[in-house]
Amino acid sequence: AGASPSEVMGDTGIEGEVGRAGWAEPGGQSARVAVSSPVGTDTVPFHGPRQAGVDTPAQAHAVFLAFDLLPDTDRLGIERMLRLLTDDAARLTQGRATIADTEPELAAAPARLTVTFGFGPELLARVAPDRAPAWLRPLPAFPQVDRLDPAFGDGDLLLQICGDDRMSVAHARRMLIKAARPFTAERWAQEGFRASRGAHPTGTTMRNLFGQVDGTANPAAQTPHLDRVVWGVGAEQVGITPWIQDGTSLVVRRIEMLLDTWDELDRPGKERVIGRTLGTGAPLTGEQEHDEPDFAALGPAGFPVIPDISHLRRARMDVPEYGMLRRGYNYDDPRGAIESGAGLIFAAYQADVDRQFVPVQERLAESDHLNLWTVPVGSAVFAIPPGCAEGGFVGDVLFA
Ligand code: HEM
Question: What is the pLDDT of residue 29?
Fold first, then answer.
């Protein structure tokens, strides 16, 4: 026993970083696997005041898993479950096998794996009803646009599993479902993707399956703007106080995208629907992706260059202090009920759903040219509790 990582590296003959992860731990020599890829061994810290996977630069793959608590899973049962899930998530994200890992080799390359826990209304009701945020309930109905399928709605517990390698995401999914099984029933699962890591320079804004640059207006990483929008830091002057320090909310909307009819539009038509160019994502009044849109600019015929019903115009709030962090994933699922089966797992983080998300969704439901090609089929709201320290568990503050 006990070959050092560098010895094993020598065996593989692969140059590269031997990292922070790279070893599947228990199970003795046979379970040890050296991983030398800098993508595979990259880890995101699990422990800390805030959960990872929220403002972590989005990984290439995601699985969103929603569970229902079993009727007899009481407060104590929930605590036991959260302890087990936390322990598993802490290990897996750092490239270590879980205690009862049946395929420990699959844990060796986490590739920036993160596991983010979200709590639905029923979990809060069983654990700490007096600490449930007022906005933790299903969104109001938007009958103009919604075609909601309960198969993609709500849930008591959410695990958002993200990583740059589909294998480690699949392994984490299996291990976490096993741990949750005695306490829950699986409710829904949604799987999504972005461009592979390395396919584009780091920091490139993602594209959705309409080809649009999607995420331009998001608050930039590690800025006071993001702290305010997502974590509610210093947002009191616009009436937002986080429900709990270092916590936030997540809205998950599954939105079908009607690629077949979208293709009937020509390119300028597609660009007017959003108000941005397809090439660079620049506003129709600008040149570069991050240029400020000029909503007053008129075209030769006297109409606004960025149409009033464009998605950009409608989604932009008059109170810029609100905002949200959109961290969505594409899906391309031939089993989809509507036409192409492609769409977006729209996932938005904000400190206060009622103040920040609902008004935007109301405006979009009222009028947004994009509605002709998009159909929301799933909707769920979760409270994202703070992170935990080593030895603690996610949600422990609610049990204090
Ligand atoms: C902006 C696509 C649904 C809220 C954008 C942009 C695109 C886009 C291409 C412009 C670039 C950017 O800033 O990201 C889509 C697609 C959707 C969808 C394809 C459905 C499949 C939604 C929903 C909401 C939303 C459901 C919220 C209720 C926003 C916001 C912006 C935005 C807040 C930024 C507006 C600004 O510039 O201030 N979206 N979107 N989007 N979208 Fe969406």
Answer: 44
User: What pLDDT, in 10s, does the model give residues 193-216?
Assistant: 999 999 999 999 999 999 999 999
Residue nearest atom 41 of ligand 1, based on CA coordinates: 315
> Can you say whether residue 333 is alpha, beta or left, with left for phi > 0 and alpha for psi between -120 and 50 degrees?
beta
Residue 274 has pLDDT above 80, yes or no: yes
The 10s digit of each residue's pLDDT in 250-273 is: 999 999 999 989 999 999 999 999
Catalytic residue (one of 154, 214, 352, 396) = 214
Longest alpha-carbon distance in the chain: 78
pLDDT-derived band at 335 (thresholds 50, 70, 90) equals low
In the reported structure, the alpha carbon of residue 365 is separated from the centroid of ligand 1 by a whole-number distance in angstroms of 13
ipTM exceeding the 0.90 mark: yes
- The answer to whether residue 7 scores a pLDDT higher than 90 is no
Give the CA distances from residue 237 to residues 248, 322, 337, 358, in Å, rounded to whole numbers and listed in that order.
18, 11, 44, 19
Would you call 318 a catalytic residue per the annotation? Answer: no
Q: How far apart are CA 19 and CA 95, in angstroms?
A: 10
Residue 281 alpha carbon to ligand 1 centre in Å: 12
Ligand 1: list residues with CB < 6 Å.
Answer: 208, 210, 212-217, 253, 255, 257, 274, 276, 281, 311-312, 315-316, 324, 344, 346, 360-361, 364, 374
Residue of 311, 330, 375 best suited for mutating to test ligand 1, as the one with most atoms within 8 Å of CB: 311
Backbone φ and ψ of 66, nearest 5°: -115, 140
What value does the mean pLDDT take over residues 172-197? 97
> Which residue reads 């129709």 in tokens?
284
- The pTM of the full predicted model, rounded to 2 decimals, is 0.92
> If you measure from the C-alpha of residue 364 to the centroid of ligand 1, how many angstroms do you get, rounded to a whole number?
9
Contact assessment for residue 387 and residue 158, using Cβ atoms and an 8 Å cutoff: no
Alpha-carbon distances, residue 254 vs 109, 153, 182, 246, 332 (angstroms) = 29, 9, 28, 26, 12
Contact 43, 95 (CB under 8 A): yes
Phi, psi of 257 (to 5 degrees): -120, 120
The residue assigned the tokens 């640059």 is: 213
